[in-house]
Design brief:
two-stranded antiparallel sheet, Phosphorylase Kinase, domain 1, alpha+beta, five-stranded antiparallel sheet
């Protein structure tokens, strides 16, 4: 999209152009604006801005008309990025934010690429380099989980008063989403939710700031194969750190590969994490959160397709999620069939 077209728009283009002039000077103008299709939560735009001192490349996150998460908080997202940076986690620098009918925030566009689980072997064909990437993510996760949560100020996130209740609270939250959006009952989801509620005491009993989606697909990797930035903090919360570890190895992204995230053996990943934290979760806690993540993924797909059906979003990818969720259903069924859930 050209700068002229952007600045003549009465909608988001004009709103963003106004932010750019305020932040980079009255002569700053948008020369490129590309909406991306990779994200499933915030709308994402890659933007180039011509300023008096040269071109600045930005990434913009905008609140969707109706998203999977249900609630979007620009202030919290910015605070999470700033908190992560303060404890030494690589994240994009934030230029600012703006509230309105649909809030947005603007950050630097970090150079590099985002490998996905289905193409990381092509992008990084050498297994040792992929293992090194996995080990680096384990070290980032360890740094996040060992940070002092009592020193963090992240309203409206609240530190749970009972670390043993994190599973029960998460199961209850996703049962509500399921009941509000389902068209018919799905017996496998009913069973999974009942299993999660009955075994809510299988959590680790620890608390940390948890990213909730720290995996291949949510990190920018530089030319050397190292992590340049961790993205997508919108689902972060204070909960059981075992949830992050389970999500890294979720079957939806591992597929039939023996490698977690297609990059590293899970035992090697857990060992690297334990070396830095002095702790690793019991197997039953990992099983619990794996089941939780599979169930959440399916319910999120139900909510997304329902949003399209209601007409609250025109994003056809949300409709497609009704088809895509059969993959997660298959993994959930196989997990039950293979007895991986435990007794």
């Amino acid at each position: 999209m050209t700068a002229v077209l952007v600045e003549q728009e009465s909608g988001f283009g004009a709103e963003l152009a106004g932010f750019v002039r305020e932040r980079f000077g009255p002569g700053a103008r948008i020369t490129e604006m590309d909406r991306r299709g990779e994200g499933w939560s915030w709308e994402t735009y890659l933007v180039a801005v011509e300023t008096a001192s040269g071109t600045v490349r930005l990434a913009v996150k905008r609140e969707p008309a109706d998203g999977i998460l249900g609630s979007y908080d620009v202030g919290l997202e910015v605070a999470l990025l700033e908190t992560a940076a303060a404890i030494g986690i690589p994240v994009p620098a934030v230029y600012g934010s703006r509230t309105g009918a649909r809030d947005f925030y603007v950050m630097e566009r970090v150079p590099g690429s985002v490998p996905m689980p289905w193409d990381v072997r092509k992008r990084i064909p050498d297994l040792d380099r992929r293992r090194a990437l996995g080990t680096e993510i384990a070290s980032i996760m360890a740094r996040l989980h060992t940070a002092d949560i009592r020193a963090m100020r992240l309203p409206p996130l609240e530190i749970p008063t009972d670390a043993a209740a994190t599973g029960a609270e998460e199961a209850a939250r996703w049962r509500r989403v399921y009941e509000e959006n389902r068209t018919v009952r799905i017996p496998l989801i009913d069973l999974a939710l009942a299993w999660l509620e009955a075994r809510a005491d299988h959590v680790s009993g620890r608390l940390a700031l948890v990213h909730n989606d720290l995996r291949i697909g949510n990190v920018i990797v530089d030319g050397d194969g190292s992590v340049a930035a961790v993205l997508d903090w919108e689902t972060a919360r204070f909960t059981d750190p075992a949830a992050d570890l389970a999500k890294f190895d979720i079957p939806t992204f591992r597929g039939r590969s023996p490698l977690a995230g297609q990059v590293i053996e899970m035992e090697r990943y857990l060992a690297a994490y334990a070396d830095l934290t002095g702790w690793r979760p019991e197997e039953r806690a990992l099983r619990y959160w794996t089941c939780m993540e599979l169930t959440k993924g399916i319910i999120g797909s139900i909510k997304a397709s329902k949003s399209f059906e209601r007409g609250t979003t025109a994003d056809v990818r949300y409709l497609n999620m009704a088809y895509q969720m059969h993959h997660a259903l298959r993994w959930l069924l196989e997990t039950l069939r293979d007895g991986e859930w435990g007794d």
